[in-house]
Structure formats: structure tokens, C-alpha cells
Amino acid sequence: MRFSFDDQQGPLRANFKRPGSASSAPKLRVVRTEPSIGHAKTSGAKGLDHQPAASQPPESVALRSLFPNATFYGCNDLVVEKVAHSVGSAQEGELALYQIGEHDPVEFVATALARGVGGILTEQLLPCPIYQCVIGNLDHAHSELLAALHGQPAQQMLTVGVIGDSGKTTTCLLAATLTNAKSLRTAYQCDLASSDGVIKATSQQPTLAGPALMQWMGDANDCHSQVAIVELHANQAKNGLYDSIELDVLIVAGRHEVTQDFGPDVLDCVIDRLSPRGVIIHPDDDQRSIEAAQDANCEAIAYGNTPGCESAAMILDQSGGMSTIMLTSGDCSALMESSLCGLHMAGNIAAAAAFGRLIGMELQQIATHLSSLRSVPARGQRIVGCGDATVVLESAGTPVRIKSALRSAKASGVGGKTWCVLAIGKGDSDADLSEMGTLMERFADHCVVTAKQDSRGQFLQRAHQLLDGVRECAAMRLVAGRNEALHWALKHAKPRDTIVMITNRRDQSAFECRSEVSELRELIDQYREDHPSSAGDVQQKSGKISLKLFQ
After folding, report:
1. Residue-wise pLDDT tens digits, 131-144
2. Rounded Cα–Cα distance for residues 147 and 153 (Å)
3. Contact 46, 145 (CB under 8 A)
């Protein structure tokens, strides 16, 4: 199965045409419907499964047709043309949203009456003379309403979702690299950056979900993007914040870990959002993903690091921070070189290669364009200095990613020792800290435990919880300050050693992540400028270099 594209209409799907720009539509308002008038006339807006046949997004949406189980007070229906961003900025006739626990009901009603809002979408009835639509979940209803007003943007673009315990951000960027190389206007949303197809941004907010994600997809559709790649997170998926989008491709990055908490499985939640002709790309050794794809009766493509996979990325050699990888798909093969080292990164490359084949790219083209992504910030990012130890920046955040980062650094080194500088904080559970200590002792030759800036007061308590998973506690060095810990490792590491600096950040915005990476780079560069003796010693010990030419 392949997805085909047209230069003017984007991905060719059944029963719809690409809508025009939203700027051509009239200004949207709320139309109040009196009880005696009955049901308001809709303009073609239906539920989420409907694919609009009109060439333009609907000018208005009838709430009764969109939410048939909702209760209306003061009217039989509300026809919405525009949703106010907040009640304080609402214009006359617009629809306002009341969220329980976030707004004071008395102040909200007073502001709504003063600004003349046309209706209120709420989860509970408010004592005021304004028309109201009462629904069960405001966030979900808001997302559905935005999707309807924007003409179902997820159905107008090839929508790709990436889920998994690790490797989501890297897989998103690799997939976006391929679609851009195919001259497809691509919008993407991940932990490191976002783009609506025209403007690239480093957001100060975490990755979008719910109404904010639907608004972003509407903006991407207005920018005539043909592909939308979205990084999905487990907590948002369990809370139903992705229920208003329809996925054409679902990529499972890394193994899907079955959690011990109550509630639905994350993979089941996102597979429910696949379109009838959707495709799931999953690891070949993840039995849970295989069973979920079979239960959903959807097309599946397996990827991995072994020759038997449909899409494989096998490491032939890795040293000095570079990997030589052979990509295979069917009876085709191609060689590529990448600075993304380790089996885990090779799995991400294999997943992106499977997606590339799905959109009709040749394997040799895929290898060429994937090699162009040389580095991903805080994802195994290497900082190399002449005569100094190599520093690898890794955000990690989970024991699985820490294990992958240490194994990759050890395998792609140049023969020296592996150092691990781990920052711990308040968000790490006792079980995770104990497992982190076990992994550090197992995969690193020298271990340094430090603290994040916001948890230095609880450093000793948290460090003892990490030492619960360590056998030789005396081998661990505890340094409360992160900068001091990194300076100590740089001072004592030898030129051929590798220092893995794990910032251990989980819920971090793109701006915060890039700012932290920039701060660490400046710290390392400043230390190397202040202590240049190590490079000089290496040059004095090395002899004259002579090359023997063979004719």
C-alpha cells in the first residue's frame, strides 16, 4: 500500500477535495436560535467520521448536529461561527467556554453578560440568561468543534502519529526529513520544534494536545500543508485528547511497554484513531504491537535490526561517533552513514525508512536523505574536542532511554572509558531512581550523580534512593551542583573517554530543552578554553605523522 500525492490537492483520499484558505471565509460568529424557530440550519458540518465534500470549510456549525446528546437551555440549537479565545476577549455574539475549576462562575457570567456573548459551552448549567449548551467533556467538545469549523483538517492531510516509550522525537524528525525531500509541505509537532508548514518555531509550551492541537492542524491546513506529523504522548492519549484527529499512519517507536496502572492501554487508544485504510508501523519484536494491529484488522509493517524484517536497518560498523548502516526492504538494499549511533537509533531509522517506502520513495533516496540529519539536540548529541574527552548530551528521562544512551556511547566510542553524569530531580520515582543506579553501575565505568537546579535541597535524600540499586556505593561520586559535576568529569576524563551527560528531563518544552543544551555547550567550551593543557600534552606526546604512499 502506498499514499499518492497530487501537487494541488495533497494526499489523494476518497470523497473529498482540499479546502481553500480560511482567510477567504466570512468572519465567524455565533447565531442564536430562539426556541420557537426549532433546529437551526447547518452548513454541512457532521460528526468526526464525515468527510466534507464541499471545497470550502463550513461557515457555521450546528451544535445539536455535532453533539446530539447535549442539552440546550434557552434555545433548541446554537449555530456557531466563531469560538472566543477567552471570555475576557470575547466579541459580541461569539461562543464562550466555561471550564469547571478554572473560572469563577460569578465573574465568568458577569464578564459574558458585559461582553454580549451569544452562547456558552459548558459542563454544568450556569444561572444566567445566556443560551447554553451543556456537554460531558469540554476539552473533547472544543476539539470536535474546532475540527468541524476548520473542515476536518486531519482528513485533508496525510496525518502521521508517533507513539512509544522512546525515540518519538527522533522518528518525527526523520520522517519530516523524508517528506520535505519529496517536496511535500510538512507540518510537524514534537518535543524539540514545531512547524505549520511555513514557519518553524521553538515553543515555550509542551507538545500540543486537545483543542490546541486541533487549532494547530487547522493552521497547518490553511498553510496548504500536505503532511502533518504529530508526536503523541501516553497521558494525553489516555485522557482522550487525541480523539478528534484521524490518523493515516501510526508509528510505534521503540518497544511498547505495558503499564501497571488502571485504564485503557495507550496503544489501543491511538489505534482507535486510525482511519479504515490506516497503516501501523511497529517493531518486529514487539508482540503487543503485533497483537494490537491484528485485533484492529489494519495493515501493518514491521521494522527492526534483523534481516528478516520488512524494513531493516542493520549496523555494519560504528566507531568514533559514526555508524555504517545497511537498509533493506524486500529485495532492495542501500548503505548509509549516520551520526545517530546505537541499536535504538537504528530502529528509529528503520521506522522512518518504512514510512519512506510507504509514500513511494526509493530505498537509495531514503538512505541519502536520512544521512543528511546529522544531529538531534539532546538525543545522543556529541560535542567533540581535539585532545579532550567527547561529551554526549542526552535528555533521557526514563530508565529505558538511559540504558540506550549508555549502550550507544559505549559501542560508538574510540576505546576509552565511559563516564556517566546523571542529574536527578523531584519528578523521578523511587523505583526509577533505583533502576537508574543499577543501569549506571552496569554500563558506565565511572559514575557521577548530581542534582537538577530545582532539587538541590533534596539531593542527599534522592541520591540515597538511587544508591538502593547500586552494589558498590563507594564507587559513585556525589556532587550537588550540575556544573561542578560536569567540570569534575571533564577534568579527570582522558582524551579517548566518553562522558554521557544525562539531563534527565521529561516534561520539557522545546525552548527549555534547546536552552539547556546551549547552556551546557557554552559550559563545556568555556572549560576547554580555560584548560587547554590536555590538548597540548597529547600533541607533545604524539610523534611526527608520516604517510606512506603505495603506487
Report:
1. 999 999 999 999 99
2. 7
3. no
Q: How many domains does the chain have?
A: 3
Residue 26 gets which letter from DSSP? Answer: P
Among residues 222, 160, 169, 170, which one has the least CA distance to residue 196? 222
CB atoms within 10 A of CB 425: 20
3-state secondary structure of 393: strand
Q: Are residues 270 and 130 in the same domain?
A: no
Quick check: is 197 in a domain?
Answer: yes
Please tell me the pTM assigned to this model.
0.83
Residue 42 belongs to domain spanning: 16-149
Give the pLDDT confidence of 231-240 residue by residue, as tens digits. 999 889 988 8
Question: E strand or H helix at 236, and its extent?
Answer: helix 234-238
| Most confidently predicted of 52-61, 92-101, 527-536 | 92-101
Q: Do 241 and 335 fall within a single domain?
A: yes
**What is the C-alpha to C-alpha distance for residues 357 and 360, in angstroms, rounded to an integer?**
5
Instruction: Judge if 209 and 339 occupy the same domain.
Output: yes
Check if the beta carbon of residue 413 is closer than 8 Å to that of residue 449: no
Grid cell for residue 308: 528478516
- Is the separation of the CB atoms in 470 and 476 below 8 Å? yes
pLDDT in tens, 77-104: 899 988 998 999 999 989 999 999 888 9
| Cα–Cα distance for residue pair 551/548, rounded to 1 Å | 10
In a domain, 10, yes or no: no
Per the model's pLDDT, the better-predicted residue between 395 and 545 turns out to be 395
Question: What dihedral do alpha carbons 190, 194, 198, 201 form, nearest 10°?
Answer: -160
Residue at which a domain ends, from 149, 184, 218: 149
Query: What phi and psi values does residue 11 have, to the nearest 5 degrees?
Result: -65, 130
Task: Record the cell numbers describing residue 391, joined without a space.
Answer: 561529551
Nearest to 16 by CA among 66, 53, 50: 53
Whether 461 has a pLDDT exceeding 80, the answer reads yes
Query: From CA 180, how far away is CA 195, in angstroms rounded?
Result: 12
Judgement on whether residues 194 and 234 belong to the same structural domain of the protein:
yes
User: DSSP per residue over 41-85, as a string?
Assistant: PPSS---TT----SSS--S-EEHHHH-TT-EEESSS-EEES-B-S
